[in-house]
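Section handout, structural biology tutorial.
Before the tutorial, make sure you can parse a SMILES string by hand: atoms, branches in parentheses, ring closures as digits. In the record below the ligand is pyridoxal-5'-phosphate, and the chain has 411 residues. In the tutorial you will relate the predicted structure tokens back to the input. Do not try to memorize them.
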Amino acid sequence: MMDTPNKNTAESFVKISRRGREMQSSPIRKLAAIAEARKKQGIHVYHLNIGQPDLPTPTPVLDAVHKFSQQTIEYAPSNGLPEPLKAWKKYFSHFGILFDESELIVTTGGSEAITLAMCAVCDADDEILVFEPTYANYNGFAGIANVKLKAVPTTIENGFHLPSEEAIESFVTNRTRAILYCSPSNPSGTIYSREEIQRLVNVALKHGLFILSDEAYREFAYEKKAISITEFPQVRDRAIVLESCSKKFNVCGARIGVLASHNKEIVSAILKFCQARLSVATIEQLAMVPLLENPEPYTRPLVEEFKRRRDLVCAELKTIPGVVSYIPEGAFYIVVGLPVKDAEHFSQWLIEEFEYERETVLLAPAQGFYVTQGKGINEVRLAFMLKIDDLKRSLKILREALKLYQRTSTQ
Ligand SMILES: Cc1ncc(COP(=O)(O)O)c(C=O)c1O
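Predicted structure of the complex:
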């Protein structure tokens, strides 16, 4: 008789890896399935939970896709096609950042750039410092790279700005290899000052650490400019800039990013990883060229729109009793403290049970943006991906929901 494959006996027992088991599912998408079910019941759901831009992709990108005329879609070179590399160099130069094409590698989104940078600076079980709340997918990238994130806490009371140099340093161990940060930040919208970044530079120099600077939201800086790690020549040998077209150009699905470093050894190690994954999508790389060469006309209207949205959200939040907020200086997110014990329970109740005039709101509980278990329990992240009127309406619904929840919840 034929043996049944994968039967649960000593000889054929199969078990997935520890990293596979321990990988966290996306906190942003957790409640999305419930939202879909609610929509089927005829309830309108406002998505305050996700950073998917609601504005159109610029015409030159769509034109480039439609007009692609080569007979065969070939593999691109592993570091990127020459024209997009030249365009990335030009993009950086608009911000006074000077990289040679040989110091750039085009990646499948900023996500791949971050994962590859982690792989290039860490061995298995090495540590990278991050600041929590942090971009939730850093956890996922670390899981793939078999790296541990060590979270330095920041607090809502000072708008999630960095703690002192000594406090940051106290998290460094003999396994620490790098500091990874994002300014303007997802999820908090915080922009670190020059002096704050200098603290990171000092710690990196003192302890021999790389600096992985996620500059994906560079343009989304409202009152003050976002400062690039490239403005600190002392860390020229250890800084890795990670960039993404997704948000600045409304092209999340094009999956184009870049990794940039003056450290030749880093670039050549990462290029070897890239040779193994062959190349980045040819048509999408080419489609980014007109935007990268001249980004400002595309990013300016977005930035103006997001500033209007940020101002509205902050003004409305201030008027909701018990809500703790601050002014995010950049990006298009805010982490807010809610007057509830458990924001995940509240968010689930909100999407599963609550309605206000046949409408409700989907939030992202902030626990998923913390590495440390038990932190951020009463916080949620809001993304400003709705038109002004819809944002206003969703905050009105949030206010009504909080009122009812506080009256009726046993939590
Ligand atoms: C802070 C941060 N870094 C990197 C990324 C990754 O962007 P992508 O892979 O779409 O280029 C995102 C996307 O939301 C982000 O918020």
